[in-house]
């Protein structure tokens, strides 16, 4: 897909070169190709529309019409806009808080929250030399609490026990208290997720957020959700002040469009990508590289 777009744009650039004047219709032809490529990459339609509108506005301004190499200029506008939307460079986890720095993990069930919590614990231990505690507020699925216990052990972090009989708020407060008393640098709070967006659950996570005052509120989202990721992203953005995104299961998604959709809808930077089921399958997200993957 990616190289196909590059080929198409190159051909259109060549056609444009033979013309004395660049018309709005040349630009439209190229934008159509870009639009198709984004849709093929599974970027959500409203996000594609916005993106094309922004490129068009720039392209039909002096930038392209007045330039000596209008085709190339248009391609570079597309690339620049993509980079601007995706965010530039990489952004690591923010731990600038009175310890323990609390990180709240939010997202739908199955998105990869628990796995990511452990991966992040390992990352913070190994790369940032932090003392890390994890806790699960998923009182609806006892198996989820056990799962966190298992993966936390693999990560080499400490797990704070919780039970389905407890209230998530009490669990979180208890863990925070323990983390303070035992000088943990970071407390990772894994939360419950339903299969679909659920009002009661959103209310619960909002209260949890208010109680633990996290320095990072990470939205964990499955890249394979493709276009559907925007609805989930919208709901979580409305409920919580998201500070970052973790895009999971990128290893199973060759198209990469969810990144652009989620990034545009939430405005939050994509901080990490999940690239395998294993505990070390977490990469710091490289926005520029990913932009290249979408458009080629
Ligand atoms: P949660 O319900 O949000 O806590 O999701 P889990 O952490 O239980 O993950 C759901 C499933 O997705 C599990 O089978 C994980 O092994 C798998 N998973 C999570 N992250 C990744 C990833 O980056 N790549 C792959 N291939 N699988 C992942």
From TrEMBL:
Record key words, sorted: Cytoplasm, GTP-binding, Hydrolase, Nucleotide-binding, Ribonucleoprotein, RNA-binding, Signal recognition particle
Keyword Nucleotide-binding: yes
Chief location bin: cytoplasm
Subcellular location: Cytoplasm
Top-level EC class: hydrolase
The reaction(s) this protein catalyses: GTP + H2O = GDP + phosphate + H(+)
GO cellular component: signal recognition particle
Keyword Hydrolase appears in the UniProt entry: yes
Positions with a binding annotation for GTP: 107-114, 190-194, 248-251
Similarity-based family: Belongs to the GTP-binding SRP family. SRP54 subfamily.
Described function: Involved in targeting and insertion of nascent membrane proteins into the cytoplasmic membrane. Binds to the hydrophobic signal sequence of the ribosome-nascent chain (RNC) as it emerges from the ribosomes. The SRP-RNC complex is then targeted to the cytoplasmic membrane where it interacts with the SRP receptor FtsY. Interaction with FtsY leads to the transfer of the RNC complex to the Sec translocase for insertion into the membrane, the hydrolysis of GTP by both Ffh and FtsY, and the dissociation of the SRP-FtsY complex into the individual components.
Subunit structure: Part of the signal recognition particle protein translocation system, which is composed of SRP and FtsY. SRP is a ribonucleoprotein composed of Ffh and a 4.5S RNA molecule.
Record's protein name: Signal recognition particle protein
Biological source species: Acidovorax soli
